[in-house]
Each structure stands twice: as C-alpha cells, then as structure tokens.
Amino acid sequence: MAEKLNAVKGMNDILPPESARWEWLEATVREVMARFAYRNVRTPILEHTALFVRGIGEVTDIVEKEMYSFHDRSDKYGDNDHLTLRPENTAGLVRAVAEHNMLYDGGKRLWYIGPMFRREKPQRGRFRQFHQIGAEALGFAGPDVDAELILLAHALWKAIGLTDVRLELNSLGQPAERAQHRAQLIAHFERHADRLDEDAKRRLHSNPLRILDTKNPAMKEIVESAPRLMDFLGAESLAHFNGLKAILDANGIAYTINPRLVRGLDYYNLSVFEFVTDRLGSQGTVCAGGRYDDLIAQIGGKPAPAVGWAIGVERILELVKEQGTVIPAPVPDVYAVVPDAAAMPIALRALQQLREAGVRAQMHAATADGLGSFKSQFKKADASGANYALIFGTDELSRGEVMVKALRDGTGTQTARPLADVTAWAATLQSSALNN
Ligand code: ATP
Ligand code: MG
Fold this sequence. Notes:
alpha+beta, BirA Bifunctional Protein, domain 2, Rossmann fold, 5-stranded mixed β-sheet, 16 strands, binds adenosine-5'-triphosphate
C-alpha cells in the first residue's frame, strides 16, 4: 500500500458534525452583516508578496517570520513573481478597493470571510491555516464608523450568544504623535536595557511600540512604567477618541482603556481595539481592529481613511462550544427505505419532488453488498436522525403509494401517501422550523 498522506501541520480539516457549527456561524454572520448594510467581497488567496511587506510592515511578526511566500516559476504565462498566501485580508481588500476605484462615489462598507495562512507554532487557538471574518469601512473619517464597527461586533456576539467577551480600547494617535512618543519610549527602554528580553532588544529600534505588546511576564514592570502614547496625543486625536467613547457610552457598551494595546500590524492609527476573553487560555483575543487611514496610500492607492476589524473564527467557535451553545443539527427530514432495487427509479423521483418542495430527503444507497435488509435499512434511517422513514415497499408501490413512518414521536404511526401527488403532503414532513 502507498504511504498514507496527512494534512500539513497546523492546517485542519473541518468535517461533520463540526462543520455544522461553521455553517451556522457563517449564516449568522451573513445575516448580521446585512443588517448593518455591509457587503461581501472575495479577494484572491494569493497576492504579490510586496502587498504584505508594504501593507503590513516589514518589521512585523507576520512579515518577518510568518508568511508562506514563494517564488513562482517563470513560464510563458508567468512574470516571475514573489507570491504569498495571504496572512490576513485587509491588505488584499484595500488593494482591491484601490485597484477598482471603489471609493469613486463615496465610502464603502465591506466584509469578508476566508482562510488565512501564517507559519506560527501550532497550539490551542493558533493554527497555520486559520479563518477570519472581517468588516471594513473605507472612506469615512469620523469616530462614528469606528463605533459602528464595534456595535456590529456586539450585534454578532449577541446573535451567536457570546457573553464572555470584553472590549479593550486605545488610541495610537497620528504618526507625528507616535514619533514623539517613540523617542521617549526608546529612551525609557534603553534606561532598562538589562531587563529587555531578546524580542524586545530586536524591536528596540525597529518597532519599540510592539514591545508594549509583550507576553513575557518578566518585562511587565518596565512595560507598565513606560511612557503612555495617550499622553502624547494632540487635540484632534483626543477629540476622535472622545467621540468614539461618547457613542459607546450612549449605547451602553462597556470597555476598558488599555494603554498597552498596540496591535501586531503596523498600519493602525487613532482607534485600536480588541475583544478579549479569559476562557481560551493565552490565545484570548477573538476580534481585533482599528483605524488605518494611511494604508491605502501606502499600497499606492488614492488616500482615504479606513477602519476595520478581524475575528478569529476558530477562537469564536471554541468559545461558543465552551459556553455549551446548542447548534441546530443538520439532519434530514426523511430517510427513504427501499427494500427492492426495482423501486429505485420511483423512489428517487419521489425524493426529488419532496426536495423541490423543501423537504430534506436522504436516499438509501447500495454498498458493494447491495441495498441491505429491510431491518438494516431501518437502522440507517434511525441513525440518520430523520423524523420519518419513507418505505417504498412493493405492496405500497403497487397501490401507487409510499408508507410514511414516524420515527421519533414515540407512536411509530404509519400513513400511506399517494405518489401521484407528492407536493400535497410534502409539508407535513418538514421540521425545518425546528432544526434548520
Ligand atoms: P496574536 O497576538 O494572537 O498573534 P495577531 O495580532 O497576530 O494576534 P491579528 O492579525 O490582529 O492577530 O488577527 C485578528 C484575529 O485573528 C486574532 O485576534 C485572532 O483571533 C485571529 N488569529 C490571528 N492569528 C491566528 C492564528 N495563527 N490562528 C488562529 N487565529 C488567529
Ligand atoms: Mg500573531
């Protein structure tokens, strides 16, 4: 036998019954996005490496060490490209917005869902192929859309029944304010150079802000005593931040201000926020976002303000599971029992008519051993979770009928139904109101 091949490390198969949770989440997300008038976009999974280097920033974790990049072979179609599997979707979305001049007639509210790729150490809540749902509002400058995005996330938590997430907020100000703070921050860390870990030493002159984001407890003290970016903000930046807080307050949205919240990607300014939970161990951030007013220009587009967030789907689903939320099971309404293969053409025609009427119908299919006994077919009908077995027996068929047997109401009631008029009784089989 050939050697067995397995999935790539850190990349997961999503299979039934687990996939039902994904479908449920996706359907809910679609509904909530529509309620906020956000529209779906789908960008390619492969992009030019330069998009991420310029868009995310050269000295970020992602670009420094996490990207799946390769040099595409040059053939007569190719142009000898450096390509990367997208590690996130904001850069690609912004590229698409600029490339198609989508802001020509005003701001846009967009959302996406899909797989992202980062070469990280696989662990709980951290994978190499993972999924994000993101919402982005482009072309709007005020704190009102920042608030709208937070309200959108909130609506989503409500729709999926999440309770244990809290909102953390900060402002990164504008580049000039950050530059002033940066100088002070470097000076502070230099004064405590003996206490910096390897990561911090490496970042000291490239990206000192990121040191604040350290997960190393030994650095807690020097990080907490570091100069706060908030104290370097000018009037305009503060007004933006206060505007956001006022809307959140008016909506009863609780938050805490976390001056060390900086985000791992380089493109943020003004508002940054995270929704975090204590229920997922150290991988507790389930949604992260902020304003990125300079990104579009940075990748060569016409400058336009923008703000957005991304949700880690795996982490959200784990949280949903942790909370014991019951997801409706995707079971069929009916299972066809077909004792004799000669009845198959009629049975399949009836099932097709039922499906057209909206009934979820599972056919019984033959294995290498044939259709199996009546009894074994019934076992399968029961295991399928269907509420009814449809018995296409020879006697019933000779009368132009099928027997409908209730499997779950404890009565085992059998009702003969005419095959000539399937649509007339189809609705009696539907329980989709209960478990769709
Ligand atoms: P972290 O600090 O956990 O590495 P990050 O700053 O790299 O997060 P973002 O790039 O902001 O994360 O991504 C947004 C969200 O996507 C995260 O809050 C998280 O929920 C999820 N996420 C990021 N990386 C992974 C991963 N490797 N596996 C699973 N989920 C992830
Ligand atoms: Mg990361």
